[in-house]
Amino acid sequence: MPRSVHSVASRARRKKVMKQAKGFFGRRKNVWTVAKNAVEKAMLYAYRDRRNKKRTFRALWITRINAGARLYGMSYSQFMGKAKAGNINLNRKVLADLAMNHPDAFKAIVDKIK
User: Fold this and answer.
1) For residue range 55-78, what is the model confidence (pLDDT) as tens digits?
2) What phi, psi does 109 have (nearest 5°)?
């Protein structure tokens, strides 16, 4: 009886990693040991940055709201404090979009909470 060496599974595993390494620079795309490490590191970065993206966007929204509020003589913290007190339940993403793309609607919100 012939011995089993699992070559089909090994080849499939390697092919999967090499396919993920497609587009990498230099030996990272075609040498197994280098590609394996590069793909593993890339997966770690992807996992980490899916979480970091949320922080980055929140910071961007806060910056945009702050810029919009300062046009009407308020800081970001004053604006958000009065918005919560005035029972305006819009999240930062929507407020930032209004401040950027619909300044008249943002002005209406500022007038309401002042």
Assistant:
1) 999 999 999 999 999 999 999 999
2) -65, -45
